[in-house]
Structure formats: structure tokens, C-alpha cells
Amino acid sequence: MIPAMRAVVVTRFGGPEVLEVRDEPESVVGPDDLLVAPDAIGVNYRDIYEREGRYGGEAPLVNGVEGAGTVLAGAREGERVAWLAAPGSYAERVRVPAGRAVPVPGEVSTETAAAALLQGVTAHYLATTVHPVQAGETVLIHAAAGGVGLLLTQMAKKFGARVIATTSGGVKAELAHEAGADEVIGYEGFGERVGELTGREGVAAAYDGVGQATFDESLASVRTRGTMVLFGAASGPVPPFDPMRLEREGSLFLTRPGLRDYSSDRQELLARAADVFSWVADGSLEVRIGGRYPLAEARRAHEDLAARKTTGKLLLVP
Predict the structure, then answer these.
(1) Which tens digit of pLDDT belongs to each residue from 129-188?
(2) What CATH architecture does domain 4-118+265-317 belong to?
(3) Does the model's pTM come out above 0.85?
(4) H or E stretch including 24?
(5) Nearest to 178, CA basis, from 276, 288, 98, 80
(6) CATH code reported for the domain at 134-256
(7) Which of 280, 241, 294 shows the shortest CA–CA distance to 116?
(8) What is the mean pLDDT of residues 281-305?
(9) Which of 31, 170, 214, 235 is most buried, judged by most C-beta within 10 A?
(10) In sequence order, what are the residues at sequence separation of 6 or more whose Cβ sits closer than 8 angstroms to the Cβ of residue 21?
(11) CA-angle at 102, arms to 98 and 103, nearest 5°
């Protein structure tokens, strides 16, 4: 008989109300898999997109892809590992492909690893590969008090850039400043403010995970031959637009990068994770855990994240 476990199931595609905590059969692991007991599970916007059905597939399904914990069965039994691409991670036990499991160094707690890996690797490829941040240039980072935003701001500063950050103000603005942002501004009229702060030159890159609500002004904030990096859609998807606009606004580059394509090779994944964990260990990268929720309160975690009430990283704790 297959053991049962508690898991958070997307019963049908829709709002937070479709999430249900119930007993599910434990995943059957193959020779190339690990069975892991997570100590912490990451909550991400991609989980909301999955719940809404934006990724296709069929419901019911167990939500989530990220976490960290101890291997119960498989070739690395007893080891602490983290992962960022194991479907069905909102559960008491998770089947993780061995090739996607990253070792957690002794200097990093399992909880911190769960909070740092997916968003840390995302910030890493945004700042080092999608648009390699250069010392002395100015970049715009939206939602700078969010999970990716705080890490991306710290990395951009680590590489010597000037950072203009947007937040909704209050505590979020304070957190962005603490992360190293040189200028913290609000969303209303941010394009005009960026123009003022850059002497009308614009930024070398705009990192935009907000999407629909900020896209137009973000594009207008980029300097000639600069890069518009659209990596999320927290406010909704960006409507189609005429590519000639990129030429008219300064021969701009537009990219919509995804984690899958910047971590598909195991060596690339390990190299990015090693950088993130080493920076966490030496104190040059601070990971803020903005909320911990019991597995049974996954619905509330989704609601809080979608309402942009949170800062830093949200975790489910089984």
C-alpha cells in the first residue's frame, strides 16, 4: 500500500479558493529520483499562475515546485538538498529529480536555502546573463521589496550599478534602501522620475516583474540600445504591441526570460546556486523571509502574495 501524505491540491483552475489540503498518495520515486521531506517550501508567483491554469495541464494537481529538506530515499539519503523545479512541492514528501537537486552547504540553513534558491537563481541570471550589470550604469528594478527584487537590488549593487527602485512606499521603501537602492520611488509617474534622475538618458536596463501596469513606462525609461527585461506579470500579462515601437524608442532590446532556460543545464544550475549560497554564507547577500505559513494555510499565503501585502520570501512550513 502506498503511504499517504498531506498536500495542497489545486482541485480546479481558479482563485485561491481552489486550493485544498488533503491526503494524497506519496510520490513513487524512480532510480533517478530522490524522496525528500521538506523543511520549508517556497511560495512564488509562478505557483499562482499554475493554480490559475496559465501553464496548461490538467487539475487536480499538487501545487508548487520549490523547497529544501532532507533526502529520505534515493542515492543521497540523509543529505540536505534544495530544488527549484520539482512539481508537487506543496507536500509533506516530494519526489525530486536527482539531477535538479542542489546540495545545501553547511553554512546555510535548510530554511534559508528554500527561501534563496529559486528567487536567488532568478536574480542571478537576470543580473549576470540576461543583462550583465556593469559598474557605473543605472538600472531600474521594480517591486524592489519583493523576493526577487531585494536579491536583484543587492546583486546589482554588488556589481557596481546605480539602482533606481520602485516600491509602494512605507516599510517596502525602507527595505529597498537597506538592500542598497540609491533612489527609491513610487509607481505613480515613475517614468518621468526616472527621466529626471538620469538626466533624460534613461536606464541601461529595466527589470520588470510587474507586467501590465508598468510595462509602457518601463519601456519608455530605457536608454537608447538599452534592455527591457520583462520577467513576470504580477499585475497581469502585457498586451500585444507593435515591435516597431522598439526601434522608435531607441533600438531597444526586449526579452522575456524564464528560469527553465537559464538553469536547464545541471552545471549551469549548480554554478548559479553556488554563487547564491556562497554570497548568503559570507553575508554579502541577505535573504529576507517575509512570512511563514503552515501547509494548511497555503491559500492565505497565495492571497497575501497576490495582494502585494508581503515583502521578501514566503515559505510554507510542513
Answers:
(1) 999 999 999 999 999 999 999 999 999 999 999 999 999 999 999 999 999 999 999 999
(2) Alpha-Beta Complex (3.90)
(3) yes
(4) strand 19-25
(5) 288
(6) 3.40.50.720
(7) 280
(8) 97
(9) 214
(10) 6, 7, 8, 9, 295, 296, 298
(11) 110
Q: Are strands 4-10 and 61-62 parallel, antiparallel or unpaired?
A: antiparallel
Q: What is the mean pLDDT of the chain?
A: 96
What's the pLDDT tens digit per position in 81-90? Answer: 999 999 999 9
pLDDT of residue 1: 55
Show Cβ contacts of residue 8 under 8 Å, excluding neighbours closer than 6 positions. Answer: 19, 20, 21, 62, 63, 64, 90, 91, 295, 298, 316
> Residues 6 or more apart from 241 whose CB is under 8 A from it?
none
pLDDT of residue 75: 87
Residue with cell 510542513: 318
Q: Which three cell numbers stand for residue 94?
A: 516530494
Instruction: Spell out a b/e string for 248-262, using b for 16 or more CB atoms within 10 Å of the CB, else e.
Output: ebeebebeebebeeb
Phi-psi region of 64 (alpha: psi -120 to 50; beta: other; left: phi over 0): left
Burial pattern 97-121, b for ≥16 Cβ within 10 A else e, equals ebebbbebeeebbbbbbbbbbbbbb
Q: Residue ranges per domain, the chain? A: 4-118+265-317, 134-256
What secondary structure does DSSP assign to 162-173, as a single string? EEEEE--STHHH
For residues 283 and 112, give the distance between their C-alpha atoms in angstroms, rounded to a whole number.
Answer: 12
**Distance in angstroms (rounded) separating the CA atoms of residues 210 and 126:** 15
DSSP 8-class letter at 105: P
Whether 9 and 20 have beta carbons less than 8 Å apart is answered as: yes
User: Is it the case that residue 209 has pLDDT exceeding 90?
Assistant: yes
End-to-end CA distance of the chain: 23
Q: Is the pLDDT of residue 263 over 70?
A: yes
C-alpha cell at 68: 529544501
